[in-house]
Prior knowledge:
mainly alpha
Amino acid sequence: MTVTPPARLAAHVHRLAVLLAAGIAPTSAWRHIAAEGEDETLGRVVAQLDRAPDVALALERAAPTGDAAWAGLVAAWRVAAASGAPLAPALTAFAGAIRGRQEAARDIEIALAGPQATARIVLLLPACAIVLALLLGVDVLGTLAQPLGLLSALLGVGLLLLARRWMRRMLRAAAPPPPTAGLALDLLAVAAGGGGSPEAALALVAAELDRASLTIDEAETRAAMSLVRLSRRSGAPLGALCRAEAVERRADARASARSSAERLAVRLMLPLGACILPSFVLLGVVPLLLGLLSSTPSS
């Protein structure tokens, strides 16, 4: 199933919000967006609307499996409908949130480009050593018949596999922030637009997140509960509090991921020195020495 890129989904949602603000019915608005969007998922949404006019149900059935952005859109639509919040402002804010998360992911991809390229190049060093030995006329396969050559090859390959696994784990640790960063707070801001109590808005968001099987960071959940209490005590609008907190959460996640990516460039030196360079010696230098020694006539 084709997954809609977050940037394109944000554009769809923003256009949808404009159409709804102009007074167009939700089902008609989705059909207009699908006619111009050239998106497979939008086509599935329209197909589901042809069967039943329930937009939330159509979105849930048409959303790609495992796509957090679409799952968030479904949850936002349900929250807005259940709370009575105006759809157009809610969708406009949600489109901005999608763009914010996409910008964060793009920043981290740029920061990781250097370390990823370094990892790929470094992993080629043992292969370059084998090619060098072959160019020098060393019988690399012949050295495997010797116990020392076989042991050297096995250790070299083992170190190479260890280094690859080590580097992949390090790269995963410096991945972009989760696509759900700030989502609970965005949904709470949508629910607050319905004019209900802060506690009811929080309960609605929790139910929809659970229904959508979206995992939210525990710290963000605590922040949402804290904002509900603050809004209740102070009388401040919950929606404004949540939107500001969501922006801050995404900024913190982006900064943390960027910092991790920058540290990664230095940490990649660990597998280089501990695994790659020894593997280079075991797969290239040792066979070369064994080949030279075996080709030297004994006196």
